[in-house]
Amino acid sequence: MKFFYKPAYYYILVDLSILFLSFYIVLAWLPLTTSTPFQKYSDVSFVYFIVWFFNSYILKRYRPLHKQKYWISIVRLFYTVILNFIVFWFLLHNFFKPYSGYVLLSFSLGVFIINYISLSIYYAYRLAIDYNEIYFEPSEREDAALISLPKVDKESYQKICEIINNHSGTRVLSYLKNQVDLYSGNTFLYINNSSANLQLIPKYRFQTIVQLEPLNNTLNINENLFVINEKLPDKGILICCYESKSTRKARILKKYPILINYLIYLIDFIVKRMLPKIFLTSHLYNLIRNGKNQILSKAEVLGRLYCSGFELVNEKKIGNLNFVIVQRVHPPQKEQVRVYGPLIRLHRIGKNGKLIQIYKFRTMHPYSEYLQSYIFERNNLKQGGKIKRDIRITSWGYFLRKYWLDELPMFFNWFKGETKLVGVRPLTPHYYSLYTSELQNKRIQHKPGLLPPFYVDMPETIDEIQASEMKYLIDCETYGTFKTDVKYFFRIIYNIIVKKARSS
């Protein structure tokens, strides 16, 4: 790697701003012996800045951030602070004796803390919206037909039943007997959730794989499911189980006394639901807990299964566990590693049919993006064109959607020129496919908008929504887009404020 490189100038400007901010905080807020700290420390601070920029450059801090990993950038920051402190400590004792080492220490700590927070926010934002594909290359499936095996003997069958009963109980054993031929040599019972052990299973030997250990205790759930997908023949069956988030909450609240139960649930939720999902703490959590006892919502589990190439056949709750039977229908999709975070970027159809990426606050459980067809097939649209009983939406999500708070980041799309203030709502490809071809053609001739026109007409069905959008688009073509948007804007605002129109 070459020593000299072209620095990212935006990073230098941010660094300069942080230095000035730290300089101001230390001199303005800390108790100092001098009454004119800014005047006294202005010259020495200038020297500190020069040394800081030099050390940052030689330690490669100013390489573009998108080419640096998070921990690499933090380590380089730490070494820069230490190196600067050592250099300036030497200067203070030999050339700048009237100046305080206490101020130097406070200034160094301030620069490190503000830089650390800034870098963490940047990487949290970047990893929340930049979906990096996982490396997964499924092998060729030239002949993925089941390799038939003879039935197991009675002694082996009894051993299988004993294992199921000891691990999961009699109710689970009874359920599996009704769903699976446990005598079949093409049924594989699996308890250890290690994907490395799954790799040892021969391909296409088992029509059904039964995974008894809950997915909550699986370290790399998707990797585990990807391997099973690869090992199963075409239309092979996977039976797995999990404890849902709602079941876990009810179990904790019932187990402990009132008030204490909510405190325990809050701690449990933060530690076992939030920490594994945040990139700053996920690796640490997995290192300590080895992926055990995660909190999973139903939407996340089904989303992971659909992402991994499976389709739901049946589901049943037994005790605290939800058992799901899924069938392999296609290879795993290229999984998006970074699917968590409060800010997300979603594919929507824009002007001229071009796919644009709309920014929103997350209102759905992770992996919900893979469940659109599943939800639509099992639920009808309610009034306003929304889906009834949408399990993908979180509790906070309903609140954010009701008051449009989830759509505030869409103003960034407005600034980029991809949307306008008033216009038809940007749709997913699946939802767009439900529209008539005439309306589809008209839609892509106009930019989508932040304030949809159906809040003027207040339609209640998808047909009425299409009629409302068609009327708006015809008005744009007849009277001009600007004049139509102004008229619609004030009518939308009136309905929101006076008639309490809400997004839900």
Q: How many E strands?
A: 9
Number of domains: 3
Shape: globular
pLDDT averaged residue by residue:
84
> What is the percentage of strand-forming residues?
5-15%
Number of helices: 20
What characterizes the major β-sheet? 5 strands, mixed
Task: Work out the helicity level.
Answer: 40-55%
CATH architecture designation of the largest domain: 3-Layer(aba) Sandwich
How would you name the oligomeric state of the polypeptide chains in this document?
A: single chain
Tell me the strand order in the biggest sheet. Answer: 1-2-3-5-4
Any low-confidence stretches, pLDDT <50, length ≥5? none
Could you please say which CATH topology of the largest domain applies here? Rossmann fold
N- and C-termini, Cα separation: 53 Å
